[in-house]
Amino acid sequence: MRTVFVDLHNHSCLSPCGEDEMVPALVAGLHKLAGVDVAALTDHNTTRNCPAFFEAAEAYGLSPLAGMELTTAEDIHVICLFLTCEEAAAFEEKVYEHRVLIKNKVNIFGNQLIVDANDKVIGEDPYYLPNATTLTLEEAYDLATSMGGVCHPAHVDRPSNGLIAVLGDVPEHPAYRFAEYNDPANIEPYREKYPRLRDMNVIYGSDAHRPDAVPEEAVFSIEVDDEGTPAEAVFRYLKGE
User: Fold this and answer.
1) How many CA atoms lie within 13 A of 224 on its CB side?
2) 76 SS3 class
3) Residues 199, 172: contact at Cβ < 8 Å?
């Protein structure tokens, strides 16, 4: 077994709420400097900056996962993670069919920049990314897992777009194996108040949208097996394999 530090929820300049300077290479570099072993890029309802993130992560010696923070029809955020950019891109194609396409108002919401690993802007999503898709909570879970990914609720300890904030409690279904916490100090109080959280393993995501939101030192670790890359081991851990 080995101990790995993880941060499985981060945004780049493709998320309109993410600052333009949060290019994938910077996200990867900041996590490497912080001592994180495995990081995931999880922009709102898209995975298109994951290739640049993977390229930069490889250069820095960071082990990456590809992901998305999907907004369900209930306006709940869930994290969907994949081992490769190709799998994540295939998932995004399916999610796109369920997006509600509203033109992004850059002056209000911000840019949605697609960049390469050298920070060059190569495109922009013209439609506002974070709004709710037509996928229900269960449909989103079923889609992600059927395509080889893992899915868990994002920031259950936050008052906006969190599973508990929207529903008031943790539903029996989907049968999530993990719950993400944004602040490790909230783990025990939330598990005490909401009994179903006690049956779900804990995972961490900083939900960083700007450089100073990435912790300067890694804050959350898990024990995983010794096989393959750290990202492969973490992915197996999340899948329960």
Assistant:
1) 24
2) coil
3) no
Q: What's the pTM value of the predicted model, to 2 decimals?
A: 0.97
Looking only at the bridges linking them, the beta strands covering 121-124 and 221-224 are unpaired
216 contacts: CB under 8 Å, gap ≥ 6: 34
Exposure of 223 by Cβ count < 10 A (0-12 exposed, 13-18 middle, 19+ buried)?
A: exposed
Q: Is the Cβ–Cβ distance between 19 and 2 less than 8 Å?
A: no
User: Are 63 and 230 in contact, with CB atoms under 8 Å apart?
Assistant: yes
What stretches of the chain adopt beta strand conformation (E)? 2-7, 38-44, 63-71, 77-82, 113-115, 121-124, 150-153, 178-181, 201-204, 221-224
Which residues are registered as beta bridge partners of 112?
none
Per-residue pLDDT tens digits of the chain, which is 241 residues long: 999 999 999 999 999 999 999 999 999 999 999 999 999 999 999 999 999 999 999 999 999 999 999 999 999 999 999 999 999 999 999 999 999 999 999 999 999 999 999 999 999 999 999 999 999 999 999 999 999 999 999 999 999 999 999 999 999 999 999 999 999 999 999 999 999 999 999 999 999 999 999 999 999 999 999 999 999 999 999 999 8
Residues ≥6 apart with Cβ < 8 Å to 12: 18, 22, 23, 24, 27, 41, 43, 49, 53, 115
CA distance 25 to 59: 9
Residue 69 CA to chain centroid, in angstroms? 5
